[in-house]
Amino acid sequence: MGDRRGSDEWGAAGSVAPAAVDVLIATAGRVAELAVTLAGLAAQDAPPFRVIVSDQSADGASAAPAVQAMVRVLRAQGREVRMLRHLPRRGLAEHRQFLLDESAAEAVLYLDDDVWLEPGALARVSDALDTLGCGFVGMAVQGLSFLDDDRPAQRARFEPWQGPVVPERVRRGTPGFDRWPLHNAANLVHLARDTPIPPRGWLAYKVAWIGACVLYRRAALWMSAGSGSGRRLHPTTRARTSSRSGA
């Protein structure tokens, strides 16, 4: 069960463990998707985490009954959950900067508001970040509607890391850029089927891009991209969160 309080303890007062990870969720106008995302977090055990949701919905989607139901579950489990409003809308980059400013844990997980995490996912990415000693690790989201759409050609550039993870420059025209189709559709589901996974439960490999579920070492993120340039953006009515579903 890890540090998650079971239902037999929900009625007892208890302290909240200091968060090792802040889960940062930017949302706008998504009730069902956000509730599913929070349900996935309710299935996670260690490490201790806090959830920070920033809502830019016109009508406050984070106050919807389905969302609030999962917030109550997380809090009963011993998780701190903060539900914030952040307006006006200045685009996703500024929204994520706001969330970073609100965080304090040593690691931050940027999680899209349409992604369900399977049990144990947070423990695996946290273990990977600690073991590899790099600035970030990601878990590619999988569109299970593509489960029957096998694309071996798009997996041809799969390349596990040999030795330590080191910085890599990826630009158009470089060999690394050709990995970009790797995270399409359900490619990683099919890759896991055909690739032995070490007993630790994860395998580090080289990427061209990754999003939707990325765990950063907060100090490294702040030094490289957290200077706050997003705060200078003007309000926009066109800003929105990702429209892609993932599971």
Automatic annotation (TrEMBL):
Species the sequence originates in: Microbacterium trichothecenolyticum
Residue segments, region Disordered: 226-247
Organism lineage: Bacteria, Bacillati, Actinomycetota, Actinomycetes, Micrococcales
Superkingdom as given in the UniProt entry: Bacteria
The protein, known as: GT2 family glycosyltransferase
Biased composition (Polar residues): 238-247
Residue ranges of domain Glycosyltransferase 2-like in the record: 23-142
InterPro entries per UniProt: Glyco_trans_2-like, Nucleotide-diphossugar_trans
